Structure formats: structure tokens, C-alpha cells
Amino acid sequence: MQERRDFLKTVSIAASTAYFSSPLAAFPNELAEPNISCQYYPWFTFFKREGIDWHADLSYSIKTFASVGFGGFEPTFESVDEVENLKPLLKKYQLPMHSFYVNSILHDPKQVAASMSQGLPIP
Questions:
Q1: Is the pTM of this model over 0.70?
Q2: DSSP letter for each residue of 19-55
């Protein structure tokens, strides 16, 4: 009869061997095509360094971002209008938006209510 410790060692070794010998076989959907998104802020910063205003031609900015091959775009919104302006561009360049950020001020009690009322309507 196999003891519990020996059984656990055997199972651990077998599972580790299976996982590390062929991770693509173990998780084909998750690892076959990595899906890495990128936040908007670094691109805004890079464009600014080059003297380009990200917001001046949003179509150009999103097209440039999409050309790199990221699996998604994570924008920052300050209003519902910004969401509506971005939607058709994300669709056009086939960029999913898995998450987004809202500029909210939560550290100053005097500004929390106003900040929340601005951010909460953003879908």
C-alpha cells in the first residue's frame, strides 16, 4: 500500500512534468496567443515627447497603437463623451477594451463627491 507522502510526491512530480514539458498542450487557449493590453498613458507620453498631441487626431493615434499588435487598449476617461468618441475607433481598428481608468480624486474629502459624480456615469 502506498503511503500518503509517497502518493503526494508522485502526483506532484507527474503534474509538474506534464505542465513544464508542454504548457501549450496543457493550456492551449490561454498560451497559444498571448493577449496583452496596454494602457493609454505611456502612448500619450511617447507622443508628447515626439511633439504629437494624442488627442489632436485620435484616429491616427489609435491606428498607430493598433499597428503594434496589442490585444487590447486601456484608455483613461474623464467623461461619457470620450467613451462615445472612442467606440467607433476601437471597432474600426479591432481593439478590445477590457478595462479602463477614470480620473477620480479620492484623497481629498472636499472633492470626492464631485469626482465620483463625474466618473460614475462612465459605462
A1: no
A2: HHH-HHHHSHHHHSS---EEEHHHHHHHHHHTT--TT
